[in-house]
Structure formats: structure tokens, C-alpha cells
Give the backbone structure.
Amino acid sequence: MSEIIENSSKNHDGLVDLFSRTISYLRLSLTDRCNLKCMYCVTEDERNGCLTKLNQDELLTYEELLRVVRVAVDMGISKLRLTGGEPLVRKNVMHFIEQLGTIKNLHDIRITTNAVLLEQYADQLVAAGVNKINISLDTLKPERFAQITGVDCFEKVWRGIEKARTAGFSPVKLNMVVMRGINDDELVDFARMSRDTSLQVRYIEFMPVGVSSRWDKNTYMSSDEIKERIAVLGELIPDVGGRADGPASVFRLGEEAKGKLGFISPISHHFCDKCNRLRLTSEGMLRSCLLHDDETDLRSVLRQGCSDEEIQQTLLTAIRNKPKGHQMEERLKETGSDCHGRMSRIGG
Ligand code: SAM
């Protein structure tokens, strides 16, 4: 089977894994640093100052990242997402993104951001060729925003969201991690916003990821329950194209709705059979499944003065090791999650 993968990559027919999934989507965590300290990313102690961060020399340099992306695009990767940590806090990030925008055959560059710096960067992102944006927003209440993120800057974030719209991102997607007892009383408010504005709201099931996640069976809420809760606003009409929007199943709240609603259900209705993703963590590890800690060390390969062929081989090894599914439900029943990687380094 590895021969099939190698042959297909040489013919530029795409990267196909052992379970016939075509891998076309690479997510880069540009840095583990962030200007927020969200409660599911860091512990209380870490919030109060003892958060260990990667040293500069542990991060892949921009030159290394550009080289990997060029090789990956040549092998069949067509979609790239910049994430983190907060991608926009890395020094000189705009220059890096501008260079990404010049890579031949790379026409789909996306970003996931907390919007804190979007007022400053949204126009430049559009000019550099970033074509889609996801913004993380777990509450519409300024006080609660400060509690969840550790920073009192809701208004700045809201201005960033507005700026993303006027800069030309369409749609602007807002990702809400749903946590029972923490923000589930706002499910209907978010749904209403997707009906009355062009914003696309996406509810994400809370996942047991990372050493710091405060996930437990009580805070977790399934997409089915979320749908029941927002049914008070009326019927959810499946959007034309259905699952065309990545892992989200997409709906409209009535025929007249201006925006859409998406449900991302990695736990209750996992989409592993259609997963097309490969992740590169901020310390240069290739991770083929968000919810499995197995990683392939690309940074060491890069720093041993490798050839492009060796980068290709390392990408192929990571893809070959991509598990069939995350089996999170089974693992939770047995011993609990064994996914200890840090979300800020993996990139979500
Ligand atoms: N700083 C950027 C941001 O805030 O969008 C990108 C990094 S953040 C780690 C990426 C995404 O992962 C965010 O949408 C965040 O809400 C989500 N996330 C983090 N931990 C999660 C968890 N345990 N379950 C579900 N989503 C999570």
C-alpha cells in the first residue's frame, strides 16, 4: 500500500492513505503562544503565570515552514490553514503569509484566529491571499468572555469580527465550543445571530484534548442536544450541499435566515472516514489525527540538512500512520482520553 501512496504522489494525483482517504488539507500551528488564556487550553496555575512555552529555536522557522508547504503542495495538498496558539501574534507573520500567497498552485489559505488582532490585520490578510477565516468566540457576554479567556477584551474582538466582514471575508465563521454549565445558556443567542446577520455560527463539541482541558462528561454536550435546544427558534433547514463545508453539517434557521448554522461533532458523529487532514504542530511534528498523540518528527529531518525527497518521505510516513478513526468513545469508556498534546501546539 505504501507503494500506492508513493506512486500517487509522484504522479501528483494526490496523497491517499491506507484507508483510501485523500489527504489534501494541511494545518500549520505557527506558534504555541497566544494573547488569550482560554480555560480549555490552560490550567488555572498556567493562567497565573507558570505556562511553559516553546523556545524560539524549537519552533519551525518561516523558511522551514515555507519549504514544507512547497513540498506538500507539490504532492497534492491544496488547502492550508494557519492556526496556533494565536497565529497573528508571531513576529513578522504578515511577511510569512505574503510569501505563502506566492506559492504556485496554492490557492486556498485559511486562518483560525481569536480576532484580538484582526482590526490591525484583516485587510492585509485579504491582500496576502487568505481567502477564509474562522473566528473562535465562545460567548457574547463581555464579562463571561473575560472569565473564559482570562482577558477582558470582548469589545476589541467584536471590532475585529466587524473588520473581518468589511475587509471582505465572506462568510465570517464563528466557532463556539459548547460547554454545559459554562456557555450553553447562549446557544439560542448564537443561533439567532446566524438568522439575523450574515455570520455563520458553528457549534463545536467540546473534546477531551490536552493536559489542560477541563473536559468531563458533564461539560460535554452533543450536537443532537444542541439542536434540540435551539429548536425553540424554529425549523433547521439543511443547507444545499449539506456536508460540503468540511466536517460541519450546515443548516439555516428558516428560509429567510441571512447566515447559516454548522454543527461539528467530533465525538457524537465523528467524521474520521472523510478526514483529509494532516497537522504540523508548532514544534514541527506531523500529527495525522487530532485525537491521537502519535506524531512524526519532521523538525529533526529538516535540521539534518535533508533533501526535498526526504521531506516527501516524512510526509508519506505520517500519512501512512494516520489511524482509521479516533475511537474516542471506546477510549473514554476504558481509561479516559489519552490525548495529552497541547491544543495550542497542535492548533485545534
Ligand atoms: N488562537 C486561535 C483561535 O482562538 O481561534 C487558534 C487556536 S485555537 C486552539 C483553535 C480552536 O480550537 C479554537 O476554535 C478553540 O476554540 C478550539 N478548541 C480548543 N480546545 C478545544 C476543545 N477541548 N474542544 C473543542 N475545541 C477546542
